[in-house]
Write a structure and sequence with these properties.
Layout lengths: L2 E6 L3 H14 L3 E7 L10 E4 L2 E4 L5 E2 L4 H8 L6 E3 L6 E6 L2 E4 L4 E2 L2 E2 L2 H6 L5 H8 L16 H9 L1 H15 L9 H4 L1 H10 L2 H17 L11 E4 L4 H10 L5 E3 L3 E7 L2 E6 L4 E4 L1 E4 L3 H8 L4 H8 L3 E12 L9 E5 L10 E3 L1 H4 L8 E9 L4 H4 L3 H16 L7 E12 L5 H12 L5 E3 L9 H26 L1
The protein binds flavin-adenine dinucleotide.
The site of flavin-adenine dinucleotide has 36 residues, from helix 1, strand 2, strand 17, strand 21 and helix 17.
Length: about 475
Amino acid sequence: MQKTVVIIGAGIAGLAAAWTLQNKSRGAVRCLVIERGLHPGGKIVSERHDDYLVERGPDSFIVQKPDALELCRELGLEERLLGSNMEKRTTYVWSRGRLHPLPEGMMLVAPAKVMPVLRSRLLSWPGKLRMGMEYFIPPRKPDAPEESLAAFVRRRLGQEALEKIATPLMAGIHAADPERLSLQSTFPVFLEMERKHGGLLRAMRSRRQAQKKNAAQGGRRGADGPMFYSLSGGLQQMTDALAVRLKPGTLRLGESVETIAHQDGRYQLTMGDGQKLHADAVIVAAPAYAAAPMVQALDAPLAEKLRAIRYVSTATVSLAYRRSEIPHALDGYGFVIPRTEHRSITACSWSSVKFRDRAPEDRVLLRVFLGGAGAEHLAEQGEAELIDRARVELRTTMGIAAHPLLAVAHCWWKANPQYELGHAALVEEIEHRVAQHDGLYLAGAAYHGAGIPDCIRSGKDAAAMAAEKIQIDRCVSL
Ligand SMILES: Cc1cc2nc3c(=O)[nH]c(=O)nc-3n(C[C@H](O)[C@H](O)[C@H](O)COP(=O)(O)OP(=O)(O)OC[C@H]3O[C@@H](n4cnc5c(N)ncnc54)[C@H](O)[C@@H]3O)c2cc1C
């Protein structure tokens, strides 16, 4: 008899799970994807507005983690892959009334070269000196308690590097409070640099030496391709391609799952309209706070732990202008704003500089970010308020006084999971409880990384586990 796997949520994690399951089971498994919304893709939403391409949610994925790039190739989207601009890569930081370029060669907060940091007008001389002292700070003991991003950066590089670089750039990616953000769960590479080399400056020095040695031996000079990729028609081409390739009848839009229960060795799902669905395995790829009520009756402690993963709201505002209306050289990906500057936006991406074909030749498309931990009220507003606020801030930071040719705003309510101190232990407890329910799996941004490649990996892993369980069940019943 054909087995059924139900996947809850058609974001990138759920779709990647369905695609993997379809490929792995070769028709032996009936797969259903239940999505509450009317479109597949979850937070991935790309829209054409005349000649502009607006991303309401994510605008790119990193290539350092290969799953997104691999998936695009698997889906035949190779020719549509679009690398980020390699010539204009500067990131600016707003500080003391102007935009300062981030010193060249920074790996987020870790400087690769001394001279650009010394020349930078972003940091004060005491701040630069304190960063340089990092070289002499001994590593922490391996069994020391978990540290927040703020504690780690303050200890190694000082308060100024924390305020002006780490908080807007690193905590900004997660829309998080740096004092609560777990370094281990978000940027483990920096912990590894400390453990392996004794510090960040030492690690960067040995990296440079390895690159030089490699170049002298005729090898490539390391990461010299684009760091970010998108698709020519926007990231939604990836989720659309997944949805189209699923077998007819797999994707059920506009339906929601309310509860999951055990019944006669299978799962019984109760839908929003009272309908019942039966499944041999279930992959919950909805946000953790949406998964919690589904499993409340099945496993109350699991539901409680899922609720403990906090989410915050953010918003994006895309604005288009004539190039001539923007006084800045626009020679980079955009700018970030430290919290200490007390402005009401957190960053601005220069979308049409970062990726080509996002706006006509003589126009510019910008994307402003608002909200995040401690500033959610600034994101949870109507479209008109978000646009007004973004325009006021762009006038101050970039000197743009013109009326925008296009303005599109979107509030992402409780969209960003917070990987706070203790996140790894909490996820371990969640997974331990989930493992008590044979055939139940979790996937998505809440657990092992919120970036698109991480979400794809989580979907694929959950699908592989579900396929294995079904295979075992089949062998047992033979
Ligand atoms: C503004 C913004 C910008 C971002 N930028 C980037 C970026 O540039 N690069 C990057 O890598 N990442 C970025 N991210 C993060 C990334 O977009 C997300 O982490 C990822 O898309 C989440 O995918 P997911 O499948 O886990 O969840 P989602 O996309 O949230 O999908 C979950 C789905 O479950 C559905 N659902 C919920 N409850 C139910 C229910 N009861 N029944 C049925 N369906 C249900 C929802 O409707 C939703 O469609 C950004 C996020 C935001 C908010």
